[in-house]
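Thread: N-formylglutamate amidohydrolase, structure

OP (GT): Posting the sequence first so everyone is looking at the same thing. Length is 325 residues per the record. Can we get the structure tokens written out before standup tomorrow? I want them in the notebook alongside the other entries.
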Amino acid sequence: MRGNRPIHFFLFFIFFSTISCRKMTSGNNDNSNKNNNQTPITSFFAEDIDKLQTVTLVEGHLPLIITVPHGSLNLPDSIPNRTEGQLVADAYTISVANQLSNQIQQHYKVIPYLVVFNVARRKVDVNRPINEGCESPQGRRVWKDYHNTLQKTVDTVKKRYGHGLLLDIHGQAHKEGMVELGYLLSGDALRSVSTNDSALVKQSSIQLLASRLQKSGSTATAAASLLRGNGSFGHAMMVNSTGNEASLSVQVVPSPSYPYPENGTLYFRGGYTTKRYHTTLDVIQVESPKSLRFSKEGRKLLCDNLAKAAIFMLDHYYLPNRSKL
């Protein structure tokens, strides 16, 4: 949006049907919308540009926000192409987010918040600061659309629940083929033997959760386990019903089995979204590998494990008594 021009929202009801589901990711928004089963109750759209609704917000009823900044393939003519930085879409991440949201809904009978940017990264990168992610006034306008919408959603979750978790969904094609969880900690920091996890978690994008646990009387060990111990998102993704990490098809870093990325390998620690919002809510950047995203079976496996981890986090840290659902 330009300056302080207000965002106008249009409310409509979506019926629980396959046709209605696909409206969320219609057109060129994602090349996998035939397989998503998301059934949002209500949606809001930021004001359009070139008849394109730039931001999709699905209102939720959980202290969980799922964001997709790089999933769209929409290329509105009125926004000039960017010439620098990463320009390629994170393919199938909208489908991943929709499936993840649907599985969480099946568990809790209510949906998480979902915020999707409907403009291709070739035009605007909303996971970068505005001066890096935009090369035109038109691009800056829709960048503000996205972050104004997301900021309001973050503030709503904070006000309603007092805390919450934001999962920022991305994709990468690193040869290791692992799910990379970004906590604003570099690979070197995770590999360091001179810094214990109690200190690391205080520097991470889940520092609010660690602080809250310690204030509630939990031990330092419990807070330290949040990054790559038995209380972590990574452990919950890989663990089986007996409590052991046994998932060979989904490998996650950091986790007890893979506590850090190997030296010399690529690892994404979190971008602008993680940096901007982690002082209000806990944020984890989820970088899913191409090997899991590019097939229907792979996406199901990925989403099964992501949903399991999200439910673990909600049950243990954000909704221990579910009193505010």
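GT: Both are above now. Quick notes for whoever picks this up: The first strand starts at residue 12 and ends at 13. Residues 12-194+262-318 form a domain with the Aminopeptidase fold (CATH 3.40.630).
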